[in-house]
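== Protein entry: sequence and backbone fold ==
=== Local backbone shapes as whole numbers ===
==== Amino acids and backbone structure tokens ====
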Amino acid sequence: MSVAPNGGRALLHLYRRILRSAATYPSKNRWGIYEAIREEFRENTGLDPECPETRKKVKVAYKGLEQLNMYQQTNLGGGSASNPNWSVTLEQNPMPKPPHMQ
């Protein structure tokens, strides 16, 4: 996964996909999560795309998108939004701890 030269466009696409998924996330705190995502992306707009720390953040963003997508109704219902029987399987340690928590 490359962040530069076309990275700006790819990151914008990633950002939009994450926001779309967060908007349909089944949680009481859905809009709080949505705003937290917006805020974090805004805080990181000036990062150097070649920096290893930036690449790590992009990987975490892709992982977050993958996890948000597991909760879409069509994925939960086996392709049918009307199917009430669903399950989600998460990894044991899916996300790295933030640097300030290590």
Observations:
- Residues 28 and 34 are 12 Å apart (CA to CA).
- The first helix runs from residue 7 to 23.
- The chain has a mean pLDDT of 80.
